[in-house]
Amino acid sequence: MELLHLFQRLGLALALGLLIGLERGWQLRERSEGARLAGLRTFGLTGLMGGVWALLARDFGPAVLGVGFAALAVVVILAHLQMVRGGDQPDHGITTVVALLLTFAFGALTVSGSMAVAAAGAVITAFLLGLKPVLHDWLRRLTEPELFAALKLLLISVVILPVLPNRGLGPWGALNPYALWWMVVLIAGISFVGYFAVKLMGPNRGVPLTGLAGGLASSTATTLSFSRLGRRQPDLRRLLAAGVALSAATMFPRIALEAAVVNSDVLPVLGPVMATMTALGFLAAGLLWWKAGNGDTPGEVALQNPFEIGPALQFGFLLATIMLLAEGARAWLGDAGVYLLAGVSGLTDVDAITLSLSRMAQGELSTHVAARAITLAAMVNTVVKGGLVVGIAGRGMAGPVAAAFGVVLAGGMAAVLLL
Prior knowledge:
The chain is an all-alpha fold. It has helices at residues 3-27, 40-60, 62-86, 95-112, 115-130, 132-141, 144-160, 177-201, 207-232, 237-262, 267-292, 309-333, 335-345, 351-360, 367-393, 395-418. 42% of the residues are buried.
C-alpha cells in the first residue's frame, strides 16, 4: 500500500474515533476527570488502534485483528465493571462500551476495507448516540399497541413477503402472491406513517393541520370525523369544510405515490391530472379557511390502531378480488369494463383499484386507460365524501364542501381531456 495512501487511511481512522469521542465527551462533560470510561482522546486512540491492528493483520494474518479486538473488549469491559463497582459510573448502561468497540471496528475498516463505509458508519453511530433524548422521549410516548403494530408490519414485510411465490396464478395469471402481498405492505406502510403523522403533529393544532395529516391515513375517516363535529357545532362548519377539502386533496398525491411505486410508467399520464386536482383542492381549502377567519380551533380525529393483521388480510382479499375482476372485465368488456369496475370501486376505496390497475399497466392494459380509470375512481370517491357531508352535517357545511369539490372535479375533468 502506498505510504501516502496508508497515512490517509490511518488519519481517517483517527478522525472517526475523534468524531464519536466528541459526541461521547460532550454527553459526559459534566462528570469529573476519571469518572468517564472514555473521552475524546480514548476514542481517537481506539480508532487509530483499529487501523494499526488492521495493518498488522496484513502481514501476520487475520487472526491478529481478532486478538486485538478481543484484547480491547476485555480491557473495556473490566474498566466498565470497575467503575460500576466503585460508584464512579452513575448508570450501568454499556452504550459507551459498545461505541468503543465499534470505533475500533471502524478504524480497522478504514485500512482493510472501504473508507466510505467506515465513515458513514461512524457518522451514523455519532448521530444515533446524540439522539438519546429524542429516542427516549419516543419510547415514553409509544404505546403497546403501536409497538406491536410496528412489529406486525415488519412481520408481513420482512418475514412473509420474501417467501411468497413471484409468479402469476389463477385465471389469466392475474394473481401473483408476491405482488399482492407487496401491495398490502405498501398500503399498510402508508397508513402506518399517516397514523404517526397525526399523532406527532397533534390533532389539536388546528383543523387544517388535522385535515392534512388525517388525509394521509384516511381522508374518508377524516371527512366522517369532521362531519360529525360539524353537526354538533354549527358555528365551526365553514372551518371544518376547509378541513374536509384539505383532507380530500391529500388523497390525490397519495394515489400518485402508490401508482408510481408499483409502475412508474403510469405517472407521466396520471401525475399531471393528480397534480391539477391537488392544487385546486389545496386552493379551495385555503379560500374556505380564509373566509372562516384565522384561528386554531381544534379538530379531533380519532386515532385507531396503526396496523392490525385482520384489516391487512381483508385488504389483501379485496385487492385480489379487484385484480381478478379487473382482468376479467378487460377480457370480456375491454376498456369499458375497466372503467366500470373503477367507478364501482371508487364508491368505497381508491387504494385497491389504484394498485391493481397500475400493476395491470405493466402488461396488456394501456397506461392511458389505467390512468383515466384511476382518476375516475378518485372522482367517484370524492363525490361519495361530499355525500357523507351532506348526509351527516347538513347544508351549512355541505355548501362550501360542494363548491370546493366541484372545482376539483371540474379541474380534473379538464386535465383528463387536455392531457
